[in-house]
Amino acid sequence: MSNTAAEIEGATLGLHTLEEYEPLIGSDATRRITQKAKRLQTAHIVHVSSTFYGGGVTEILTPLTLMMNAIGIETGWRMIQGTPEFFACTKKLHNMLQGENLEFSHSERAVYEQVVFENATRLHLEDCDAVATHDPQPLPLIAHFQGRDVPWFWECHVDLSSPNPAVWNYLRGFIERYDAAIFSLPEYKKDLGIEQRVITPAINPFSPKNRELTEDEVDDTLAHYQIPTDLPLVVQVSRFDRWKDPIGVIEACRKAREEVDFTLVLVGNNALDDPESGVILETIHSSADERTLVITADDPTLVNALQRRAAVVLQKSLREGFGLTVTEAMWKGAAVIGGNVGGIRRQIKDGENGFLVDTVDAAAARIVQTLKEPNLRDRLGAHARETVRENFLMSRLLEDWLDLLGRQ
Question: Could you tell me the CATH superfamily of domain 14-202+393-406?
Fold first, then answer.
């Protein structure tokens, strides 16, 4: 449920500090990170991406940039502005980087490079000590700052396990002008003539999406959205993107309902830089049955409540650079069933802290098993939360960036 104006007005303004993480990560880690930050107190860092709203990049950069400022490092975040034609081109690049067999035409290249050039003229990045661009949208910016004397990094958040060769060869012409490329997983590294680093994404456990909720808060939020709780909830939270396989989720749930009854809830949003999402949403609505709720809402408290109350959380992706919705659900002690792809495999150890599946039938079977065995759900959830505490909190991501910047 969204915050009211009165709640916002009455809130204490501030940024989440490293000290708040100390009960989770320990005093030694807190002191270590603080000392690394002190060496970068005069630095000015700028991140460039395509949207402040929707998607994993935003989920990472929102807390990271705020936390870096809170620890004393001047950190900015700027946007690529583009036309619908431009974002259609970059969505196509995204799909091709994840392996789709398409052609990126000369006219599409011209649109892509022209819009980035126009952005380069107004971003004024010359006064920075380091620049990080994210994903394909701002990638060619580097071509317009060749006189720079500060490091530039390109971070790729998509699943690069099998990129389209033609588009990869085109984009690597820009990538190799950077000082380093950053990937979510070691297996995404490529044959490049520049340094390559691995920085795994992480979550902010204190954000509205991840903070602790009381049972009453969960009940009130679900009631506000008229989500029935008479049956167990099976939930998938994700962008409305075909790589998240929402139709496969609906089909798996149809099969699972032959043995157990439950309500499926699909929650997502339409990211501003994703022109395909409206079409995918229409397809979801046409495929859904009366026991499937489709909710389009930008409400982190709703996501939080659903992930806490769900008997099963799904992330049945076909490609996934990492999968922050998996991390978020695991942090809440949910039993997560994820696609056996990309970064989901780095988070879920099959049968230990969740399940990995390759097919609709396998997903259906795991849904049935998890719903029938509450002790199994509890065991998976407890191990899942500890996995996130040890590996995927924002304090660790902050330290990774401090290490990268401190070596330049």
Answer: Glycogen Phosphorylase B; (3.40.50.2000)
